[in-house]
Amino acid sequence: MNLYDDQMGLISQYYPEIYSQVVQEQGVEKPRRRSGRKKKKGEGGSGNGVAGKRKLSQEQVTMLEMSFVNEQKLESERKENIASQLGLEPRQVAVWFQNRRARWKSKKLEDEYSKLKSEHDCTVVEKCKLENEVLRLKEQVCEAEKEIRRLLERSDGFSSINSPSSSFLMEVLDPPFLGGFGFEGLEKVLYVPQNDYINGLEWVNRYDM
DNA sequence: TGTGAGAGCCGTTTACATCA
DNA sequence: TTGATGTAAACGGCTCTCAC
Asked: What does the record give under GO molecular function (predicted)?
């Protein structure tokens, strides 16, 4: 059983009147090659024997839609079959499939756009949430720093500046010595002895080239 | 390798239906 | 009745594939 048989099964099930008409028209042999592809406008080609375009009937469209759902591409044999079943020119069937593929593609693009837009909107909302969170955390840090400074100032009245607790707090609050003066990375190149009690100027002179 | 035919895609045109 | 507008059928041009 091929796709065509599947289609016919569906059609007989859902559209018995169309199916009986189709079965009656089976067996019509048509030439497979098209002759004279180009036609001037107004020459027709609709196969209706009427000048101008005519909309396809509801039954024709239904059958074409069902066929399209089964398979979007149209092989020659299938096209001939559908055309003979529906009393249309093969060219009409081909054109209908072409236009239907275009509509399908357009709809697909529309759906993809909607999906992407929805995802984009979600991302924007998430970004706003994260930015708010960053602001909130920054405020917390600011408050914490104020609190530390307040505690430091209070502790000045009770202990000397060289007490272990205050030096620890200073380390927390102040940037590293080299980094604070724009010498980031130099500490890796220059050796600074840990317990060397030379003053700052002497230290600079020692490493001055 | 060149050529002709068939088929698909894309953009456009045309015929027709609908509505204000 | 008529003009604007939307939709679907059809066309024309281009490209690709395949057989010869």
From this structure: DNA binding; DNA-binding transcription factor activity, RNA polymerase II-specific
* Helical axes A58-70 vs A16-24, angle rounded to 10°: 90
pLDDT computed for residue A19 by the predictor:
40
Nucleotides of chain C touched by protein CB (<7 A): 8-13
User: CA A10, CA A6: separation in Å to the nearest integer?
Assistant: 6
**Strand, helix or coil for residue A38:** coil
Q: Which nucleotide is nearest to A41 (CA to C1')?
A: C11
Fill in the amino acid letter for A105. K
Is residue A92 very low, low, confident or very high in pLDDT (cuts 50, 70, 90)? Answer: confident
Query: Half-sphere exposure (CA, 13 Å, Cβ side) for A177?
Result: 8
Q: Is the CB of A44 under 7 A from strand C?
A: yes
- A41-51 average pLDDT score: 36
